[in-house]
Amino acid sequence: MKSHGSRDKLQAAASSSHRRVLLLLFATCFALATFVTFVYNTSHFASASGSGAAADSSGGGASAGSGTGAVSALPLPVFDALVHFASISNATHRMSDTDIRAISAVLRARGPCNLLVFGLGAESPLWLALNHGGRTVFLEENEFYVKYLEPRHPGLEAYDVSYTTKVRDFRDLLDAARASRAAECRPIQNLLFSECRLAINDLPNDLYDVAWDIVLIDGPSGWNPTSPGRMPSIFTTAVLARTGATAAKGPTDVLVHDFQFELEQVLSKEFLCDENRVAGSGTPSLGHFVVRPDGRRDAFCSGQDSTAAGTSSEKSGK
């Protein structure tokens, strides 16, 4: 019995020693894993912070040619697939497939970039996706539509805008803008303090400091005389492209949808200028302009009289 008891004690001691070794080994592995995780997270956080700071310094989003290397464009096969399925969609009130492809071509050339879109529509999720890695901001006249879409499309950045203009008044508004082209409605100005009736000056302040690469004008509505029309969005875009951070970064691609209508054609000719229209680009219903800061402070286009109101020949829009 004594011999048997001693053997049990030896086995118990060996078992206890074995457990201590396993416990020590486990503690060592746990400490090593904790240390490796700490080192990785620290380096990853520092890298992310540096990338974020570089992105912030570029004006609130990635811009083509910014050189930060913080973002990458959407892979071309994915880009093409999104455009393909959007162009054959049967969604109501959508753009034509030719317009979708024309806009997408500009986004492919400039993206990822800072993209400003006037109007929310069936294509809004597409523009957000195609500009992957950039900043896309939507301005919409219907605040309820903004509240409806934002929860359904994570990452959508949209703001509601109140417009005071009416389509029926666009000739009078244009004459007034021509008459004050060297004053309130000049091409280079701080829109936040603008008194021009066509200027949009109630956006979030930081949006005026973003270097916009592309502006797509697809709103507000202009289907009837009491609709706000796109006079403010076209005028404001023309000023943005010539002022501040947007002008400093170089040319701005401006795309005007529903270009087949008189208002869009007349206002684009007045503020975006025929000389800036891109030949062979766009479609009959999409005007494509590249606006470069030219330093003119009292005229938007070459040959404009900065002091005279529109004549009857100008009013014809020809």
From TrEMBL:
GO terms for biological process: plant-type secondary cell wall biogenesis; xylan biosynthetic process. The chain crosses the membrane at residues 21-40. Its main location: Golgi. The keyword Ubl conjugation does not apply. InterPro entries: IRX15/GXM/AGM. Keywords: Membrane, Transmembrane, Transmembrane helix. It is found in: Golgi apparatus membrane. This is Os04g0649900 protein. Pfam families: IRX15_IRX15L_GXM. GO terms for cellular component: Golgi apparatus; Golgi membrane. It comes from Oryza sativa subsp. japonica (Rice). It is a single-pass membrane protein.
